[in-house]
Amino acid sequence: MRHLVILALVSSSLLACGNNNGGGGGGDDQQMIDAPTLTGDKYSLSWGPVTVPPGGENTQCIWMRLSNTSEIKVHSLHNTLTDGSHHLIVYKDDQHTTEQPTRMDCQPFTGALNSTGMIAPIAITQRKDDPIFLPNGVAYTFGAGQMIKLEMHYKNSGDTDLTVMGTVDFYAADPATIQHEAAILFAGSPDIDLMAGETETLHQFFTPPANTSFANANFFAITGHTHSLGTSVKVRVGMQGGTLNEIYAPNPFKWDEPETATPAEFKSPAGGGFDFECSYTNTTAGRVRFGESADEEMCFFWAYYYPSIGSKVCFHTESFGSANVCCPGDSLCSYIEQML
Questions:
Q1: Omega before 307 cis (within 30°)?
Q2: What pLDDT score does 330 carry?
């Protein structure tokens, strides 16, 4: 989806975020711990470069194979982006078999809504320099010559041409050190309707539906997401109407560089879920609703977890009787896809 950002994941034993030169862990009295280093066999792919004129906005994809000749366990990644790169989504693609290195227009985030489950996001980044470290013993498994889909959403908000490019480096770990597969839960609501000039908050509760159980999931990092009118994102985990544990509430919240929280690993209790809210100030002269464009809005968070039951795109929406939907696997997924 547009305006997404990948988290800078850290080992579960670390409190420091690699994006902040080993910092980012909290107050001045907290001991700072150096972030891990990017090590292991490296495989690289690039999207672009492409020249984007002022006002230009689009989402374009490429499909390319990695050069690995045997199965690898990807334990860390390093993403780098130029100005104008709104977000880059990295997918593990086990459905497509033919490379497409020439950029082509593509619908955002449809890979995660794919009914086969064979295309899964593994990294989402908006930061210019974004190292990603999964917890000890956790990785993504890539087959030999793994097909990768790179989806770039770019926009030039300036008055001169921009050269847009993104690069992803994948680092393989010793397979003997890996016990678990990683995945992403991407959840939120399309129920956004902001009146011109008003300050509003969308507050909802997402309960994983029966077809998607995170009962055994260990969540270890979380990022909130809005577009440019967003002023705050808060996420709590627990029982609806009961005890809730706040796990995400950066202050200030920066929509274009949202903080990644790396709390102690947490679980969603059986029968419980995620309480989330997004606040906005509509500084435009018009009504703003949900959508992919930079001129529309979103309210989402994504949390990384293990062991994997697959990467899921999930929604709570009041438009269908307080429905909770996870894709792939629900009849409402096609409706959600049409909205994107």
A1: yes
A2: 65
